[in-house]
């Protein structure tokens, strides 16, 4: 692994940081999340048209920029610094890889160029609260996380008119504003129960979407209700192939999420250090007290370690023979973000607890992401199980 970034990668970071500084202050972020879309639609069009962000990790053949997960992770590190509410994660990190891996050539040509141009956004809808398991981060993606053929979740049936879905999925990232839904549904009943992925136009008959109240407003979620909605099968009728695609996508998405969390943690630390230099107590800046220095130094070490892990995971995700360490990197990054956000609130004193200050937004991002993609101890436990670290030996009686 070459730890040095290329000039192109540095330019991606620089350009995004400059744009974020101009367009995404705390007030702009709070205003954007209160719009019906849950994000600044004009800024999203700018990111798509001028920077090609939705297609950053998409091949040029399908309208993308032709970069890798590393470039997407670097971009998300910058958007994470400002807690940018956007469809970037749901579309570029979750939906695009699945369409590219599983879709037919016709499906890829119909969807991917429009996604790369910013004309379409997409969202992955998984039944219940099983997103982390479906992506192979906290459990086996080959399991019965989608209901196991029993009542509940989303069910699929095929008749003479094609596939139809019925059921419900909650906590769908950007599901209320996405143009295309990738829905995980069970079919086959008990005899041949299997989980497959389906494409559903969000505006089609039988689809109802309700934006949910969330802990982290910068991470909009929705409840998707399907009532005999017409669907198109994405990929083969093979549950094992779908599970493998979900696990590979989850590994890369976890690396991207880890970089995003590192960006948020770094910004929370940066703001806290600035405040500690200015706030005076007993006639001197609080940052001059040894106890405060030690606490900030601990946060700095945690952020730098998480950054190294995120970069390595993103690099590994771009290799065919790379290790699947996205879950471990994500666990370390979420730990760092929770620590940085907690210290930001504490060291800002009274102002850190106010609604007007943005410190609470970083803390909510840490808590919300752990609920969606963790918890941290399960990310680490599943990684250990996958690596076979704690294989029990049979003891002769």
TrEMBL record:
Pfam families: Acyl-CoA_dh_1, Acyl-CoA_dh_N. It comes from Streptomyces indicus. Residues 253-384 form the Acyl-CoA dehydrogenase/oxidase C-terminal domain. Keywords: FAD, Flavoprotein, Oxidoreductase. GO terms for molecular function: acyl-CoA dehydrogenase activity; flavin adenine dinucleotide binding. Residues 6-119 form the Acyl-CoA dehydrogenase/oxidase N-terminal domain. Belongs to the acyl-CoA dehydrogenase family. This is Acyl-CoA dehydrogenase. Its cofactor is FAD. It comes from the Bacteria.
């Amino acid at each position: 692994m070459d730890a040095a970034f290329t000039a192109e990668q540095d330019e991606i970071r620089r350009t995004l940081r400059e744009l974020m500084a101009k367009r995404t202050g705390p007030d702009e972020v709070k205003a954007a999340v209160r719009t019906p879309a849950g994000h600044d639609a004009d800024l999203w069009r700018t990111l798509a048209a001028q920077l090609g962000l939705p297609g950053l990790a998409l091949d040029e053949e399908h309208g993308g920029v032709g970069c890798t997960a590393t470039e997407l992770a670097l971009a998300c590190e910058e958007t994470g610094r400002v807690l940018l509410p956007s469809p970037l994660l749901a579309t570029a990190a979750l939906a695009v890889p699945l369409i590219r891996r599983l879709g037919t050539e016709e499906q890829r040509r119909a969807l991917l160029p429009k996604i790369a141009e910013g004309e379409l956004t997409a969202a992955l809808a998984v039944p219940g609260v099983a997103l982390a398991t479906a992506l192979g981060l906290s459990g086996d993606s080959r399991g019965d996380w989608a209901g196991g053929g029993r009542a509940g979740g989303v069910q699929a049936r095929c008749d003479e008119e094609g596939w139809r879905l019925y059921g419900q999925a909650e906590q769908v990232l950007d599901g209320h504003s996405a143009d295309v839904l990738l829905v995980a549904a069970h079919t086959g009943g008990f005899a041949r129960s299997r989980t497959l992925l389906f494409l559903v136009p969000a505006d089609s008959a039988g689809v109802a979407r309700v934006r949910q109240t969330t802990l982290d407003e910068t991470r909009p979620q929705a409840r998707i209700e399907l009532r005999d909605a017409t669907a198109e099968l994405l990929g083969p009728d093979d549950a094992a192939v779908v599970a493998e695609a979900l696990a590979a996508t989850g590994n890369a998405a976890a690396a991207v999420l880890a970089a995003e969390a590192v960006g948020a943690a770094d910004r929370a630390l940066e703001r806290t250090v600035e405040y500690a230099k200015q706030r005076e107590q007993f006639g001197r800046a609080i940052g001059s007290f040894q106890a405060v220095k030690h606490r900030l130094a601990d946060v700095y070490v945690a952020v730098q370690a998480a950054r190294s892990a995120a970069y390595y995971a993103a690099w590994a995700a771009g290799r065919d023979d790379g290790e699947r360490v996205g879950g471990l990197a994500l666990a370390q990054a979420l730990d760092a973000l929770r620590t940085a956000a907690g210290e930001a609130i504490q060291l800002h004193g009274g102002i850190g607890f106010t609604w007007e200050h943005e410190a609470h937004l970083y803390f909510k991002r840490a808590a919300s992401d752990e609920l969606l993609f963790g918890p941290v101890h399960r990310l680490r436990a599943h990684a250990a199980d996958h690596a076979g670290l704690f294989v029990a030996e049979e003891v002769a009686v």
